[in-house]
């Protein structure tokens, strides 16, 4: 929500040239004002511009970006070309920190409330995730996704990383190594 594409810089350096090509879009989330579905449409356009309409891809999303990626996959047809979805600290089951914020003007944050219409729709039909290899990384004590265990996809492998805070999930070496291993897995 507050990050830019630079949030992935350490992970990209950690991967070096072992994973190419890599697209790290800079979506205009406007501090949580952009609805998740609108951001998912923008993500789809960026993916198509970078890789064409049919090339199979792996998707990695961090925080709100993981829910945006999942929305693109499940509701905008991304499941047709996605091989793997790697989610890092993404509130797939909502977060208590989103509850105080009103839908207007913060539609993107409101989409992350427990029981929101968007999350209910995503979690209500998992059929489009059935053929996708899914993996969720999370922190037990996240402080952004509260409680931390709500930051996992309802399908696939779930791995708790030994870090204390949300930002450490993409900055700490204890997180970067397992994330890189997952991204480099064939």
Looking at the overall shape, the CATH architecture is 3-Layer(aba) Sandwich
Taken from the alpha-carbon principal axes, the silhouette is: globular
Oligomeric description of these chains? single chain
Strand content: 5-15%
Report on this structure:
- By secondary structure, the protein is an alpha/beta fold.
- It has a single domain (5-184), classed as Alpha/Beta hydrolase fold, catalytic domain (Rossmann fold), CATH 3.40.50.
- Helix content is 32%, strand content 12%.
- It has six helices and four strands.
- The chain has helices at 9-15, 36-51, 64-75, 107-110, 117-124, 173-184, and strands at 57-62, 82-88, 133-138, 157-160.
- A four-stranded parallel sheet has the order 1-2-3-4, with helices on both faces.
- Strand 1 (57-62), helix 3 (64-75) and strand 2 form a beta-alpha-beta unit.
- Helix 1 (9-15) crosses helix 6 (173-184) and helix 2 packs across helix 3 (64-75).
- 38% of the residues are buried.
- The mean pLDDT is 94.
Short description, anyone?
The chain is of the alpha/beta class. The protein contains six helices and four strands.
Question: What key attributes describe this structure?
Answer:
6 helices; Rossmann fold
């Amino acid at each position: 929500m507050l990050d830019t594409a630079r949030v992935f810089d350490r992970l990209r350096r950690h991967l070096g040239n072992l994973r190419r090509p890599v697209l790290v879009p800079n979506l205009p989330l406007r501090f949580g004002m952009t609805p998740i579905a609108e951001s998912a449409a923008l993500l789809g356009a960026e993916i198509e511009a970078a890789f064409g309409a049919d090339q199979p891809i792996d998707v990695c999303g961090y925080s709100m970006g993981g829910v945006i990626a999942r929305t693109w996959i499940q509701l905008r047809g991304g499941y047709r070309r996605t091989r793997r979805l790697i989610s890092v600290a993404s509130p797939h089951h909502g977060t208590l920190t989103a509850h105080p914020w009103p839908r207007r003007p913060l539609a993107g944050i409101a989409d992350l409330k427990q029981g929101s219409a968007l999350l209910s729709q995503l979690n209500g039909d998992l059929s489009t995730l059935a053929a996708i290899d899914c993996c969720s990384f999370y922190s037990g004590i996240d402080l952004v996704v509260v409680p931390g265990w709500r930051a996992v996809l309802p399908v696939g492998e779930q791995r708790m990383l030994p870090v204390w805070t949300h930002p450490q999930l993409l900055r700490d070496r204890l997180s970067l190594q397992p994330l890189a291993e997952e991204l480099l897995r064939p």
